[in-house]
Design a protein that fits this description.
Layout (H helix, E strand, L loop, with lengths): L2 H27 L3 H13 L1 H16 L12 H4 L7 H4 L9 H17 L9 E3 L6 E4 L5 E4 L4 E6 L4 E13 L8 E5 L2 E5 L3 E7 L2 E8 L1 E5 L5 E5 L2 E5 L4 E4 L3 H7 L6 E8 H9 L6 E3 L2 H4 L2 E7 L3 H12 L1 E6 L2 E6 L14
Parallel strand pairs: 5-6, 15-18
Antiparallel strand pairs: 1-4, 2-3, 3-5, 4-5, 5-8, 6-7, 7-10, 8-9, 9-12, 10-11, 12-13, 14-16, 17-18
Helix pairs in contact: 1-3, 1-6, 2-3, 3-6
Length: 345
Amino acid sequence: MSQQDRTERAEQQARIDAKAAAFVVRRDSAPSAALEAELCAWIEADPAHAVAFARADANWQAMPRVRLDADYPLAPDAGHPPVRSVAARAGAAVPFLTRRRALAAAASVAAIAALGWYRYTPAERRSTGFGERAIKSLADGSTIALNTETSLTIALGRTQRAIVLEKGEAFFEVARDPDRPFTVEAPDVRVRVLGTKFNVSRSGDTTRVAVTEGSVAVTGPDGTVHQLTRNSLAEITASSVAIRHNDAFAVERSIAWREGFIQFDGERLADVLAQFNRYRAKPLHVASGDLADLSITGRFGVNESREFLQALESSFGLVTRTGPSGIEVVRKGDAGRENGSVLRE
């Protein structure tokens, strides 16, 4: 994707976020049936609108409200009534702000959404902590399995079902509903389905999608739509989309975490250690670059890093030592007398 394409995409997203923020402000200050109809039509026009509105509304709910002194009405400039807080409607005392400060507060909602600083309300946000996994059942009959250290937000509407994956990994079992497409948004990618089973993970700058049942439409950073069917995978970055079809073993590896396993086939040792680190209090690292590229194949429980280290010793002559950034994996001859053992952590 060219720089011009990225710029145009960012500008389009900024316009959507600004429109969503404007709807939130208008809905909070002067709700009406006409406004609700206008908002519903806008949300139904594009899943991106539903996601943007959910973000903007969550940010707005998390921020202090403002109201304006009659000497500084917002309406003449913006065409809408002054913004008032929920507390103000209930009769509580709220400090008056100048028109300029009120406009800045309203604009900050759009700025926060455009920059991707998402803060979700507890009712819509689901997350897991270090080493935790969880399953969330949705009102539409779908389920979401969250892997360790995962955060996402859920917005279920009459015509759209939208999920924003902020970080981590989740497996989706989507109840089929042709009238309400199910969309998962992650950086640089949108996954759209009607009813299927698939996994989405975010690691570093890469988002990975694996389909175990049905089919999904994956929209990459350049707007191109890619169809993935059962046993297909996609790896998406800001500049590329790589697709693999008919790779059942790779799909199986990608969802092994659901059964409590880490499975790898010819993967770099550094990448395998990174997977174990998702479930360890003390991180594992390789001490040298040549070890980082060592090809590793195997299947271990997510909490079996000690057994994995023992396998490294028996197969490759590698042991561990305490380093400045955690536990280092080294060759036996480099470990030193005190720390050269896979059992010392």
